[in-house]
Amino acid sequence: MSKLNQLNYEVMISEEEIGQILDTVAAKINQDYADVDNLLLVGLLKGSVVVMSDLARRLTGDVHFDFMTASSYHGGTESSGDVKIVMDLANSIRGRHVMLVEDIIDTGRTLSKVRELLLSREPASLKICTFLDKPSRRVVDVPVDYVGREIPDEFVIGYGLDYAESYRQLPYIAKVNPA
Ligand code: PRP
Hints:
This protein is α/β, with parallel strands linked by helices. The protein has one domain (about 15-30, about 35-155): Rossmann fold. The chain is built from 3 helices and 9 strands. The chain has helices spanning about 15-30, 50-55, 110-120, and strands at about 10-15, 40-45, 60-70, 85, 95-105, 125-135, 145-150, 155, 175. The strands form 2 sheets. The chain has a 6-stranded mixed beta sheet with strand order 4-3-2-5-6-7, sandwiched between helices. The longest helix has 18 residues, at about 15-30. The chain is globular, with a radius of gyration of 16 Å. The structure holds 1-O-pyrophosphono-5-O-phosphono-alpha-D-ribofuranose. 1-O-pyrophosphono-5-O-phosphono-alpha-D-ribofuranose binds near residues 73 and 109.
């Protein structure tokens, strides 16, 4: 990919490691939801698409998919507390067992707002799963049930994560070094 050559980056989590991380997370979810008839996976677009698709294929119970888009960035590098729902879920979650799937939690602002909104719709349960977590960046406390990997405060791309909308399709997580 020619655009990648313009970046100074190094692989932080390889494709193989990603698979191992997801195997571990999926095993826990399969155990915890063994008695649940159906689990609704809610992906926050766009970054969560890649991890949600790989995670879902490791789940042994019946799952449904839904998606929403929350916008919280307003030109800066940090999310603001002003989270807007750009695209809402297609279906009601009332009485459903729901799991929010994220690619990364940074300040926690996006997830906190989305969580409050979804809880107000009275699901039977609501849990949160994130592939990456940057706990050192947390501004708003949000309960996270399943974490793939905690990472330090580095700028990372790939596996759903973008840099100016590019690089989401990289099969690994890479750390971008300052130019
Ligand atoms: C990213 C990520 C989370 C959010 C985390 O999404 O997918 O939703 O930022 O940041 P926070 O914890 O500080 O709120 P982004 O808004 O970049 O959209 P994207 O998924 O389309 O890349």
